[in-house]
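Q: Protein A?
A:
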Amino acid sequence: MVDDEPIVRESLKDWLEDAGYQVATAETGEEALEMVAKQEFGVVVLDVRLPGKTGITILKELKTVKPGLKSIVITAYPSTELAVEALKLGAVDYLVKPVAPDDLEKLIRETLLKCESKNKEV
């Protein structure tokens, strides 16, 4: 969970942990890149507006260092251009804040299930 807003980051983290997920958080994209380099993640939830590098820049870098890592982009400032760019870069979805925790959890679950079934294919 990468979001510079502590209330968003922590409330979604708590919600997802209550749903049974292990959740790591980062306040900046740079922090997220360091975490991804050190351990494996199933899905990254990435805010568009972050201090330093933008979420879209981080998404590009994540795709370079971990091409198979799935990402969900969230933003409080939606735009068609950003949505198209995020999806072209491989984001699973582009959600507008406030994100409904149930919807996010469902999207994460479906994304992880697709990855799991894909890994089982021969």
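Q: Protein B?
A:
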Amino acid sequence: MNQGQNPSGSAPALDGVAYLISVMARLRAPGGCPWDARQTHQSLVQYLLEEAYEAAEAIDQGNRDDMREELGDVLLQVVFHSLIAAEATEDQFDIDDLARLAGDKLVRRHPHVFSDDQAEDLSAEESHKRWDRIKTEEKSRRSVLDGIPVGQPALARAQKVFGRARRAGLDLSQIDSLDIMSGADAEGELAGGDSLGRRLAALAAEADAAGLDAEQALRAATRRLEERIRMIESEQSGRKET
């Protein structure tokens, strides 16, 4: 398959994407919006993260209207960054470059789908393992853990570490007996010698083994907690008024 070739043989209509690009280009242009015009990749990072979290919340709640809006806001951030990159004096790229790069990556990492020999029948887990292996080879990584973002929420990052190691076929049977929270690096060590961090890591490992998303599960539990707290607030407020 040639690089950049559309695997489906036909391109979807993208008039809405073209419209969004034109709107953002107008806002960035002279005479447009001063705030939009002065934004940089660095200044927009907080909004990219914020929109991603809002999209995740909409997906967790299953609200289709909110999903439509919040995923659109994530797309807006990608378009915004691509316009800034296209204006650069060197190493320019645009939205089309991003889309082609992502598409080519998907083709490379799914040889069981896009190669000439498509007879191989892989499970979802096997496909994920192959993805990790191809990605490690492409990026010449020395460890299966290389590339996991340090800024990722701690619980999600812990589960990612366990998942990467497990799919790589590493023997994790000794992990429980290792003192992974010893010494000066034991952030979150409780006064009684019990380690909060160790227990959270164990929960991340449990979630990975069960095929669950620990971060998503915690978000759901926190929402239920919030609902209960609001009910208590309402009940207490009602009693005070009477």
